[in-house]
Amino acid sequence: MAEFNPFDQILVLKTSLNTAEDTDLTVSPMMIDGLYKQDIGTCANYSSQIGASFMMLPIVISLTPSMRLFKASLCVHVAALVVNTVRMTLLVPFFTSPNWANFYTRFASDYSRVTAADFHLSITTEATSLVLHMLIQVSLGIQAWALVKLLPRPWKGGVVVLSCFVSASAIGLRLGLCIIHINAILMLSPAHLIWVAQGSGVVGAISIAYYCALFNIKLLIHLVKNRGILPRRQRLNAMEVLIITNGILMVIPGSWTRATLYSQIFADLILVPT
């Protein structure tokens, strides 16, 4: 007789009292543990982003000279920090909701007890994610323009057109994905048109990698001009500082594009100084 292992036992969930229907669900303790460990890790990730965005907001405002408080780049950056704080705050309650995160609801896909308020919260979160995505693309475009305008005229037009195309494509696909997700939430059915989700993820990663490459190319040119050694601090002007900081800091979100942690990518991007 095989040794009994309580961790390998199977739990049977009844979804109907009709014995003629074979609707019983089987789950194991390992499946349950894995699900809730994933939820705990996700909540910790979201909570860290709430804290980082919330703390960065007063730091950015207090350390910015008053004459720069109304610059477009700073306004977009502050708006992105606020939106990300709200977005993460709306995402966390999903995992503590007695309706969405209920054990039976998640394993049996029975959403009969999900209230209208829960639906509204999920829809608001999805819309907030779209707004954040748009703000990030605008912020990257503004930062890139500060560097692109220094390029020779033949290059400037091409880079501007390419940047607009990349950002517009990323925003357009994210808008389509937002509509599909909201429709899936309302209809309580899996999202169709998987290619839109895949395309949005791929194009979003491409846009981040593109701006990462743009900033780092400028940094590389700066290093080559200085024979691989940066000049003394007294010789650095404001534009050189922008090139160096953006080139180095954009390596962080650029490396995250290889993963599926899109919420983490958003936080990395808005925490990069403008």
UniProtKB/TrEMBL annotation:
<feature type="transmembrane region" description="Helical">
    <location>
        <begin position="74"/>
        <end position="95"/>
    </location>
</feature>
<protein>
    <submittedName>
        <fullName>GPCR fungal pheromone mating factor</fullName>
    </submittedName>
</protein>
<dbReference type="InterPro" id="IPR000366">
    <property type="entry name" value="GPCR_STE2"/>
</dbReference>
<dbReference type="Pfam" id="PF02116">
    <property type="entry name" value="STE2"/>
</dbReference>
<feature type="transmembrane region" description="Helical">
    <location>
        <begin position="192"/>
        <end position="215"/>
    </location>
</feature>
<keyword id="KW-0812">Transmembrane</keyword>
<dbReference type="InterPro" id="IPR027458">
    <property type="entry name" value="STE2_TM1-TM2_sf"/>
</dbReference>
<dbReference type="GO" id="GO:0004932">
    <property type="term" value="F:mating-type factor pheromone receptor activity"/>
</dbReference>
<keyword id="KW-1133">Transmembrane helix</keyword>
<dbReference type="GO" id="GO:0038038">
    <property type="term" value="C:G protein-coupled receptor homodimeric complex"/>
</dbReference>
<dbReference type="GO" id="GO:0000750">
    <property type="term" value="P:pheromone-dependent signal transduction involved in conjugation with cellular fusion"/>
</dbReference>
<feature type="transmembrane region" description="Helical">
    <location>
        <begin position="236"/>
        <end position="256"/>
    </location>
</feature>
<keyword id="KW-0472">Membrane</keyword>
<feature type="transmembrane region" description="Helical">
    <location>
        <begin position="160"/>
        <end position="186"/>
    </location>
</feature>
<feature type="transmembrane region" description="Helical">
    <location>
        <begin position="130"/>
        <end position="148"/>
    </location>
</feature>
